[in-house]
Design a protein that fits this description.
heterotrimer, A mainly alpha, B mainly alpha, C mainly alpha, A: mainly alpha, three-stranded antiparallel beta sheet, globular, C: 10 helices, 69% helix
Chain lengths: 497, 228, 316
């Protein structure tokens, strides 16, 4: 029942936000809806800790521990983004354009609806539709600011992800065919597929897997299909970037990872090898690309590509401890990335430019933005004592214990490169004397610099930042018992235990 | 020859014919220079998909496929072209020439290579599943149309042919799907058709926005965000 | 046995006699569609008769090729007539002398000599038209080859008489996708080879834009008559190949009596006139392509023929 409730609440909030009932109405409705959804997801997650399933309609809507984990992450980041949006949109959009504001909130709720639906639906065809909807309902959020760059980013986004979705549709139809030949009466859900997979013809299974990997991989941002990601994730407004980078790519990655148990065997299995190859290529290319990023939101977007690669490698390694590390990495990445983008939004509000070389001494321009940017950068680069460090370390340790030295060696190398890349850029921005250098459109130094006046961050933005930073620090040191159980069961669902 | 055999042979040949012309229209989307003709070609392709769904529905006795055929006609033959024409605006269609990244004979040759590749991939699948005559036609042609649609998006520089390329990819996936997944539940088919409609709507609106802001729909020329 | 030789001769006479008529009907129908009156359908006969009675003027710079070419252009379609089904659907006496590839090469021989003759005279417009004809020719060659290969592979033979049976014995074979695609490709090929719109304008007088007409520019008297007649026969022969082998192999005589074979003559004429109607419809509704677009047109024909080959091969 809670599952249906979640879907209905988001949809309802989307329609209600369109009502022109004052400036505060949209944000408040969104906030209440996000809070309700978060509480419901928390309940569902607690219910699946014992390894059971929450079922609303058998074979159509159900949640096991892995999907409950994703549901929890989506709703948490959604809540934080809703809080942040209140202040951010209030500060950046003129009060007279309230139609634009209302549309923002209704699209925000629809986007949340689609991402929640991906985790809740268990029939594969519906999952595909939900994934397609996550793209379609977020296109206009990406192009919200209607600049030519935003439109270009939105166009590339919709084109490439729809191409990927069509490829994945083909793969899903192939899976249905294989399953109807092997086990005609089984339900076309994740569980039904895993049960029927030993009997399916290997040619169909492998071909379908590749199509789905490449198709959904386009949405996740795996190299070489990642070209839309830096553009779309940097041109959108900051709370939307947090949603896109933090949880949207993760939900689609969840769909891909669900295919893993269909291939028996351990680390050398077919699917695992492909995961490792794509993951290493993504992590490597992203690590080198982010060194030359000129825009700090693009920097974080490249970091998303890198982390998606790390998660894929972790899933491909095959052992249970690697899977556990992967689940932990999913959690820590989502939360830390949303913190990064909230900090980026705060920086944008304080300085008015996205250019890294234009900003010096952020910590003096706006101390809050500076601190959060620093913490976010350290967190996402994988420094201790933050959550990402713990999860990356678990994955590396699991790989070494399993004997996959080459993979771990390459992964560690890419992590180090990315660490230095991110820290170098962030340090340039945060420390130094406070000034903003004026640049012309080509990003060349103009020579003039101004000392900006202090901008006060809206209160809700600060609340959102604090809400997000607490788990980032907390999970690096201590993992609550229920969360541990949830991750344990989620990791178990990836392998054949 | 007994009656059912004759009918079966006739239906299978008719389905194969629909498949062959389907493939040809996928080539046409890559090669034709006028935008309005491309749109009409897409409508023709969707019609062929509906015909194939009807033939297969009759053969398998599955009402799902009849519904699919009906949905295809309503959404792809009637609604989507109307949507695309009215959201994008008529002036965009009046242009005769679409610019391309590579010239037309070369892209036709690559399209042929793609078709051969998809037959090569689909061949083992069909024999592995021991499939009948319908799958052996629909699956390779559907896969070819899928990859050709992706190729169209890469090659064309204008917004509307790129949108048509994506819609052609969906057409190809469904063309393969009607033969290999004839019993997919109703709600999935309905929702998938709806999704395609929303795709067309979203892309049409975005194209309109691009045209209003930038004055033209040559999206291939938007390169402000490329890496140095 | 002697019947077969006689029928073969009757085929040749049919082609020789009725080719100008078909050309005349084509021209008149085109004019009618454009709401003009048009010349009489028998005008080409009068033209050929008139030209035979005129003096021939030959430039002193040309060689034996110029004098030989009208005969070559006249005779090659006759040779091809011996090989293809025109009136009967069983092989005749000379039918195994060459297969479809051989017939294609013989027609190409005629075109080759015509091109050489156009260059021979030293007229500036001749080589221009000749090079364009060659361009269209070499772009059309792959299409010819692939269509012939596909047809032969599917039907299991290269003799046209055997191939034509394949499309009609189970009627459902007509609707095979490879068949329909091949029809399309061959139609585009006929348009290119015979110089109709959209590849070339057959009634244009502007030498700078001529592709196919330029080969007959320099001839007069008997040479011009032979070139005209030979050109008309080539068109008739190509139509016969297209219709009798690929499209509609019906209405051909089964038996060996004179009556049946004579009956086949008006039937083949009716078939060709229907095809002429289709051609007129195509010609009147399209515009002539610019020269560099012809590569795209023939590229599309090539893609269609390869698609026919792929669907035909894999469907088997």
């Amino acid at each position: 029942m809670e599952l249906l409730g979640i879907l209905i609440i988001s949809a309802l909030a989307a329609t209600l936000s369109l009502i022109p009932a004052g400036k505060r109405f949209g944000p408040v409705v969104t906030l209440i809806a996000s809070l309700a959804v978060f509480l419901l997801s928390l309940r569902i997650a607690l219910a699946t800790i014992t390894g059971g399933e929450v079922v609303a309609a058998r074979d159509w809507l159900s949640c096991d521990s892995f999907s409950a984990l994703i549901l929890l992450l989506v709703s948490f980041v959604g809540l934080a983004a809703a809080i942040f949006s209140w202040g951010y949109i209030g500060a950046t959009v003129e009060a007279t354009e309230d139609r634009k504001i209302r549309r923002y909130y209704s699209r925000f709720n629809l986007f949340m609806f689609s991402m929640l639906a991906v985790a809740i639906f268990s029939h594969l065809a519906l999952v595909w539709i939900a994934v397609e909807l996550t793209t379609l309902l977020s296109v206009f959020l990406v192009s919200f600011e209607s600049t030519p760059e935003a439109l270009e980013a939105a166009w590339k986004y919709v084109m490439l992800t729809c191409m990927g979705a069509a490829l994945a549709l083909f793969g899903i139809l192939l899976l249905y065919w294989g399953m109807s030949l092997a086990a005609p009466q089984a339900a076309f859900t994740w569980a039904g597929l895993i049960a029927a997979s030993p009997k399916m013809s290997p040619a169909i299974l492998y071909t379908a897997f590749l199509f789905i990997l490449i198709g959904f991989g386009t949405k996740v941002g795996i190299v070489p299909m990642h070209t839309w990601l830096p553009d779309a994730h940097s041109q959108a407004p900051s709370p939307i970037c947090a949603l896109l980078s933090g949880v949207e790519t993760t939900t689609v990655l969840y769909c891909i990872m669900r295919l893993l148990p269909m291939f028996p065997g351990s680390a050398a299995s077919y699917a695992g090898t492909w995961f490792i190859i794509f993951g290493l290529i993504s992590a490597g290319l992203a690590a080198f690309l982010l060194i030359q990023a000129k825009d700090y939101k693009r920097l974080f977007a490249f970091s998303t590509v890198e982390h998606m690669g790390i998660i894929l490698v972790g899933a491909g390694l095959g052992s249970f401890s690697a899977h556990f590390g992967t689940m932990l990495q999913i959690v820590s990445h989502s939360i830390t990335k949303s913190l990064c983008f909230f900090a980026a939004g705060a920086t944008l509000m304080a300085t008015g430019t996205r250019n890294i070389s234009a900003i010096r001494g952020l910590i003096r321009i706006s101390p809050l933005a500076g601190i959060f940017m620093m913490v976010g950068g350290l967190g996402i680069a994988g420094a201790p004592p933050f959550a990402v460090f713990l999860s990356e370390f678990s994955i590396l340790k699991a790989g070494i214990m399993n004997g996959q030295y080459l993979v771990i060696g390459l992964l560690a190398l890419f992590l180090v490169v990315a660490f230095f890349g991110i820290m170098y850029q962030i340090n340039r921005m945060v420390f130094g004397s406070a000034e903003i250098v004026m640049m012309d459109e080509r990003g060349l130094l103009f020579g003039r610099s101004i000392i900006p006046k202090r901008n006060i961050l809206p209160l809700t933005c600060i609340i959102a930042l604090v809400v997000t930073i607490i788990p980032v620090i907390l999970f690096g040191i201590y993992l609550p018992e229920q969360l541990y159980q949830l991750l344990y069961h989620a990791a178990a669902s990836l392998g054949r235990m | 020859m007994s009656e059912p055999d004759l009918l079966f042979s006739f239906l299978s040949k008719l389905n194969a014919l629909a498949g062959g012309v389907f493939l040809l229209s996928a080539f046409g989307l890559v090669a034709i220079r006028q935008m309005l003709t491309c749109l009409r070609l897409y409508v023709f392709q969707s019609l062929l998909l509906a015909i194939s769904a009807l033939i297969l529905g009759y053969h398998y006795g599955s009402i799902h496929l009849f519904v699919v055929a009906g949905l295809t006609i309503i959404s792809k033959v009637l609604v989507i072209p109307w949507l695309l024409r009215h959201t994008v605006g008529y002036e965009s269609y009046a242009k005769r020439e679409i610019s391309q990244v590579i010239n037309i004979p070369a892209s036709l040759l690559i399209a042929l290579g793609i078709t051969i590749l998809s037959y090569y991939i689909a061949g083992p699948l069909v024999t592995a599943a021991g499939a009948g005559v319908f799958e052996s036609i629909n699956l390779p042609i559907g896969m070819a149309s899928l990859i050709l649609g992706a190729f169209t998006v890469t090659v064309r520089r204008e917004a509307v042919p790129q949108v048509l390329g994506i819609l052609a990819m969906e057409n190809g996936a469904f063309f393969a799907g009607v033969s290999i997944a004839p019993t997919l539940p109703f709600i999935a088919e309905l929702a998938a058709a709806f999704a395609v409609l929303i795709i067309a709507l979203v892309m049409g609106l975005l194209t309109m926005k691009i045209r209003k802001t930038l004055g033209k729909t040559a999206v291939g020329e938007l390169i402000a965000l490329k890496e140095d | 046995m002697s019947h077969r030789i006689i029928f073969n001769v009757m085929q040749v006479i049919t082609v020789m006699a009725f080719a100008p008529l078909i050309k005349g009907i084509l021209t008149r129908l085109k004019e009618n569609v454009q709401s003009k009156r048009g010349p009489s359908a028998f005008q080409p006969y009068r033209d050929i008769w008139k030209l035979f009675h005129k003096d021939e003027v030959v430039s002193e710079h040309c060689s034996w090729i110029f004098r030989l070419t009208p005969f070559v252009v006249f005779i090659t379609p006759i040779f091809v007539t011996l090989l293809i089904p025109v009136l009967t659907d069983y092989p005749l006496f000379f039918a195994f002398m060459g297969d479809m590839l051989g017939g294609g090469f013989i027609l190409a021989l005629g075109g080759f000599f015509a091109t050489l003759a156009a260059i021979d005279t030293g007229n500036p417009y001749g080589p221009m038209g000749a090079s364009r004809t060659r361009m269209v020719g070499f772009l059309a060659e792959p299409v010819f080859m692939i269509v012939f290969f596909t047809v032969s592979f599917i039907a299991g033979s290269t003799i046209p008489y055997i191939v034509q049976k394949h499309w009609v014995t189970p009627l459902a074979n007509f609707f095979e996708p490879s068949h329909i695609l091949m029809l399309l490709a061959f139609l585009m090929l006929i348009i290119a080879e015979t110089g109709r719109i959209p590849v070339d304008n057959p009634s244009g007088h502007f030498e700078l834009a001529m592709i196919d007409e330029s080969k007959g520019l320099e001839y007069s008297g008997r040479g011009a008559a032979l070139m005209k007649w030979g050109g008309a026969m080539k068109f008739f022969v190509l139509c016969c190949i297209f219709l009798n082998v690929l499209v509609a192999p019906w209405g051909l005589a089964h038996g060996t009596t004179y009556g049946e074979v004579l009956l086949a003559v008006p039937l083949i004429l009716i078939k060709i006139i229907i095809f002429v109607l289709v051609l007129v419809a195509i010609e009147s509704s399209l515009a002539k392509l610019r020269l560099f677009r012809i590569t795209e047109f023939l590229g599309a024909a090539f893609a269609t023929s390869v698609a026919a080959m792929i669907t035909g091969l894999f469907f088997m």
